[in-house]
Amino acid sequence: MVNRNLVREFDVSEEDLSDAFGEIAEGDASWLESKYVDVNQIVEGKIIRIDNEFVLIDVGYKSEGTVALNEWEDEDDQPEVGQTVRVLVEDVEDTQGHLDDRGMIVLSKRKAEKIEKWLKVMETVHENDVVSGEVIRKIKGGLLVDIGVNVFLPASQVDIRRPHDIGEYIGKTIECLVLKIDEARRNIVVSRRSLIEAQRAEKKAELLKTLEVGQSRIGVVKNIADFGAFVDLGGIDGLLHITDMSWGRINHPSEMVKIDDELDVMILHIDYEKEKIALGLKQKTPSPWENVDAKFPVNTTVKGTVVNVMSYGAFVKLEDGIEGLVHISEMSWTKRISHPSEIVSIDDVIEVVVLRIDVQKQEISLGMKQTQSNPWEKVAEKYPTDSLVTGKVRNLTNYGAFIEIEEGIDGLLHVSDMSWTRKISHPNEVVEKGQEVNCKVLSVDQQRRRIALGLKQLDEDPWVSDIPSRYQQGQLVKGAVTKITNFGVFVGLEDGLEGLLHISELADHKVENPQEVVNVGDEIEVKILRVDSEERKIGLSRKRVEWAEEDEAAAEAAEAEAANRSDSTDLKGGIGGDSGPLFKAATAEPVAEESTETAEAPAAVEETPAEKPSDPVSEEAAEADKVSEETAESPQA
To answer: What is the Cα–Cα distance from 392 to 390, expressed in whole angstroms?
Structure first.
């Protein structure tokens, strides 16, 4: 019977084996020595007649036997009357009448030859023997090899790496290792791969004893992958990685090597435990990075070709094996670049400046913008302080608006510089994105690349003459209550201008809670106590609306005496040391919430205006720069 485990091992079906060996009678071969003519016996007979289809042979039986004429191949000696031949008895006369249609026994010359060849081979061939034969044809699942009889070579056992077409072996004489002999079916399965592996194992052991790092060896390319090529050194394969093929950039190993190429490679590393060898090809030539700093000194301008474009920059080849990175931040002084492909494309020839060289890491940082003049170097000259500029609102933040006055040059219009009198909580109350506005240059910080702009500075400061001329001490005015705090009431006198009515100036009697007297929205009449242009404050009083001049004089005297007793220099809204400060003109930041202000003593509480740094582009702006769209950074070279 067929060894089914063997069939499964090599993915060989019984149909494949039948195709390979044909059908041969099974059973014990001892009948071949029988002196009687019987079924499945090989006997000698004499040819007594030949016709168009059959050859009549006398085998010494009571009736002659026939052999089909087509069993003699064209290349065989053709049958002749009187010739002696050996044949297999396939069927004999018996009670069942098992004769051919002419009443004769059935013989086979071809099967007799096959059996005799098998017996001859079995005398000399055993499992694990090495046999040699010619590949005669390709069948389903493998090849037929003639070693005296046809043996089966499964496709998986043709070579270590299965060839693309096993048919290329037809006509070649090959050596194989006998894997299995199935005597019952009289077939043999062989393996060329096992023989090669055994031979390579011997060569590998010998080769590993002689290999050393730094040696040069001749090898043959056996396989190519995306990451490199496997090179046979004569018993063991080494990996020639793509990065060790050339000092220059290559996209695939097939650009450098081909199957069966003979290469002179260098041994880079040997892992004796795992029997892995790393090979190098580029190491056979000097590294172009030697003396690279002499060839491309820092701050020199050179030409190169763009070979790759990434999200963070572009790689530029300066010469074979030497590439540098132009980071996206080094491409333009002013343009806002979302991706380097907006500026360069692969194969572009561009001028660059060498910025930094790291020979150890084999990295060069390059710059494109450095080949052009920096527009920020002329900003102070182009936009002097107090000059007028026109720009477009590019971005809004909670502390101001960025105004683009030319491509890549922004100025900051801080909320505190938008209005002299209005209390602005967010810049969108004054400007909107995309709007074109006129501004005045307040300052230029060329080193930090910042320009401070002002909108309110286009008009005269109303606190210089306008407000003092319209609001004077002792004047009676009307206004609406805009906000109530624990220390007093804010009264809107006009758009953006408020005064403080301190709690001590609400009524003649002592007021614990201002809401007992007025509510937000009430229109009330008040008297102006003081107008401080320098501090931009107006102090109001409600209780003094009906006072006579002598009452005013007495209150002023009492107030002056209280001031002498106190170190406080604040302007007070009323009489006595517990009087609150005058109100400062509305600024960028909103007045503190009442819950916060209640913690302060009335005399000490003062509404804190929005702090505006000496540099209009405040530390808030610096912090915002970190998260703004123009300072997002990508990996540097």
So the answer is: 7
From CA 385, how far away is CA 80, in angstroms rounded? 125
Rounded to two decimals, the pTM is 0.42
- List, in sequence order, the alpha helices (H) in 312-450: 379-382
Q: Whose CA is closest to 254, among 277, 283, 226? A: 226
Judge whether 309 and 381 are in contact, CB under 8 Å.
no
Residue closest to 228 by CA, chosen among 260, 267, 254: 254
The alpha carbon of 568 is separated from its chain's Cα centroid by a whole number of angstroms, namely: 65
* Alpha-carbon distances, residue 86 vs 28, 322, 604 (angstroms): 19, 80, 134
pLDDT tens digit sequence for 231-248? 988 878 899 999 899 888
Q: Which residues pair with 217 in a beta bridge?
A: 265
CA distance 90 to 41: 8
pLDDT digits (tens, 9 = 90+) for 370-425: 888 777 777 888 888 889 999 999 989 999 999 988 877 889 999 988 888 777 88
Encoded amino acid at 213, one letter: V
Q: Are 45 and 59 spatial neighbours (Cβ–Cβ below 8 Å)?
A: yes
Residue 27 neighbours by CB under 8 Å, 6+ apart: 40
3-state secondary structure at position 335: coil
334-354 residue pLDDT tens: 787 889 999 999 999 999 999
Q: Determine the Cα–Cα distance for residues 158 and 138; give it in Å rounded to an integer.
A: 12
| Type of residue numbered 274 | K
Distance of CA 124 to the CA centre of its chain: 63
* 530 residue type, one letter: R
Show Cβ contacts of residue 628 under 8 Å, excluding neighbours closer than 6 positions.
395, 397, 402
228 touches 241 (CB < 8 A): yes
